């Protein structure tokens, strides 16, 4: 660590390098910390989490009981022990609360004045955070599995919605219209994601085992379909040609730079694709247990040197190296299945929520001070520098 | 708990890397492929020839390699290199879309010709082996491709299917296969089920790897115990846990097998 600081100071290294190395070190030491927890509000499982992009201060969570809660993640108390409190909730007593489980929530990408939630009661609501009343409500014909707004969009404000219907619907926030649909899938759409690099590129995953990448400006179908065999038609049985997975494709996540796309499927596999060409990079993660009948929400770290993927696997969260495919560690702590996880890029923390109604915060373990230093500090009262008694001498003085 | 050995990223192990970088650079790629080849040969010794009256070449399943090497992606990459060079052949076995069988090309060729000796399909099979094996590394063949590129006639294709080198996949396409491999697949599936049952029935559903290898095999298990253990570990049908007494295999719930 000191060598990195020296190199940065003398100009040998790029400033980014120190940040990356330190972020990686922090991610590798993620642990459950008794100093940090999140207030427990949900009475039923937690389906989705979202941390706002601007400050990283507020977190939204949506539960199976239809309740939406906003937490304040920042520690303003001077104490080390901190419990993330709820700022406000849309509880069961609210007139506008969703009737059934909330599947996806997302903050408006440009400020925290608005957030959007979609639920199994076949509606998607756009909420005003101040009054906690829906400003707009979109009705659909089938259960809404997921929705996503583009984080980098300047020219459009479309929300992509995946429902039971094989057609992907694009709802416009500005005008309230929903005439734009994307046709091509043959099964329910379990996951949709906008690319964080280009504001017009959208990826969708469906129960027909296919993952399609679309450019919404194009009038004719998808740009390409991800093929797990990279066009080698001889490898698969003939029904499995041109599919991304051998089962339902139910999870999508772009890497932070938007160059790669990760997909998970119920064939217990996770695949990494080049998002520009649609080529399977053939990184082998092994068996990534996936029994989710809805979409799986997983996340990728940011600003680390080997990037990490955090995937909910049963009752724990598995951490894989993105390009190497090796299983780094399993984060165990939940009492029941984990449904969603979200990475806080500024503090390298991971928040995960699951069926046990808990949101756990995985915090990097700071370097513990040596036991010797702690003792001497407590004896002399902390202000003096901790000196090992072996190095003390009788003739030098502290003044001057 | 504060003294637990922390995971360190590669970037922080700079000094170690610098020292070993010099000697690693030259021998790295050769070392990798040779590594896989030696593991393949080691696994092939576990294959019992007598069982099939010497009619099958030694077969290894791709996921058995995953139990020997930790980095699956590099194993896949090296296997693809060996296949591209024509040394190794990969076959899709019918029972699992992810289970691939690996056979050395010379062994395959020798056994197939040995099995065909004296039959009228011999020449067609020889022609097929000469054309297909060195060039392409496909697992299945489309009818048009066989007719046009490789200039086989319909009757020749029927003869190839009869001899067992090709099996039906779909209308108009055939899988590449190992002749007489039906018995192998049957014993394999039976043995895998029996070994998994052994792990499941053990106390707490877990058993030490050394103990499992030492157990007496029932009549259902025809192959060597070690090869089945490699198979279930590599296919992740059991969880592999390192303990102070060795490797522990714990049965994973939710398996279809």
Task: Describe the protein in words.
Chain A is mainly β. Helix content of chain A is 8%, strand content 38%. Chain A has three helices and 28 strands. A five-stranded mixed beta sheet of chain A has the order 2-6-5-4-3, with no helix packed on it. The longest helix of chain A has 14 residues. Chain A is globular. About 3% of the residues of chain A have low confidence. By secondary structure, chain B is an alpha+beta fold. In chain B, the strands form three sheets. Chain B has a three-stranded antiparallel beta sheet with strand order 1-3-2. Chain B has a three-stranded antiparallel beta sheet with strand order 4-6-5. In chain B, strand 2 and strand 3 form a beta hairpin. The longest helix of chain B has 32 residues. Chain B starts with 13 loop residues before the first helix and ends in a 6-residue tail after the last strand. About 7% of the residues of chain B have low confidence. The interface between A and B is medium-sized, with 35 and 31 residues.
Helical content class of chain A:
under 10%
What is the rounded distance between the termini of chain B?
A: 39 Å
Give the biggest sheet of chain B.
Answer: 3 strands, antiparallel
Shape estimate of chain B: elongated
Structural class of chain A: mainly beta
